[in-house]
Amino acid sequence: MDPRIEIWEVLHDGEITAIAGEQTATLTMFVSIPYLRRRVQPLEDSFVLTLTGLTRFEWHDLDGSVSSLRQELEYNITPGIVGTGSESLPVTVETTTGSLVLDFEGIRYNLDTGDEVPYEAIRRGCDDYWREWEKRFADKGDST
User: Fold this and answer.
1) 56-61 and 66-67 as β-strands: parallel, antiparallel, unpaired?
2) How far apart are CA 93 and CA 144, in angstroms?
3) Phi then psi for 125, rounded to 5 degrees?
4) Helical packing angle, 119-142 and 3-10, nearest 10°
5) DSSP element (H, E) containing 66
6) 53-73: burial string, b at 16+ Cβ within 10 Å, e else
7) Beta carbons of 7 and 107 less than 8 angstroms apart
8) Residue 141: which H helix or E strand, with range?
9) 107 near 51, Cβ under 8 Å?
């Protein structure tokens, strides 16, 4: 799957905590996801996604009306990423407080320290986490 789309599944449970550049061709988005972020050193709690060639950025409230994600964030509402059913761009990212429609050309991944991180490292951390989580759950089920 295209990493520009798959990242929204990988960051499931992450919270969008800050954005910048929503009216430009480059959008920067902070996603706080401590359980995944702590698997990539140095220890912090967020990833920074930089979407380039942005041609569409729409925030839809739960009632479907188009509004402002920046305004949501200013009121300390942090949308939790649920995932996406999209298979191509534009991608619709479902969250706990609405949906985000994005169309863009490229994406860069950074740690909140500023260091670049390959997509594969984020993906691997996610796979490892959920594999370990499933094993813990299965082990607990065997002991009862």
Assistant:
1) antiparallel
2) 38
3) -60, -40
4) 40
5) strand 66-67
6) ebeebbbbeeeeeeeebeebb
7) yes
8) helix 119-142
9) yes
Residues in the chain: 144
Give me the residue label for tokens 């059913």.
85
Residue written as token pair 């619709």: 92
DSSP three-state, residue 44: coil
What is the tens place of the pLDDT at every residue in 124-140? Answer: 999 999 999 999 888 77
Nearest to 12 by CA among 142, 136, 123: 123
Q: Hey, what's the torsion of the CAs at 42, 84, 19, 105, to 10 degrees?
A: 90
Structure token pair of residue 67: 């509004």
Query: Mean pLDDT over residues 99-122, rounded?
Result: 97
Helices (H) and strands (E) in the chain, counts: 4, 9
Residue pair 55/64 in contact by the 8 Å Cβ criterion: no
The answer to whether the pTM exceeds 0.90 is yes
Only one residue has tokens 């994005």, namely 102
Under 8 Å between Cβ of 97 and 77: yes
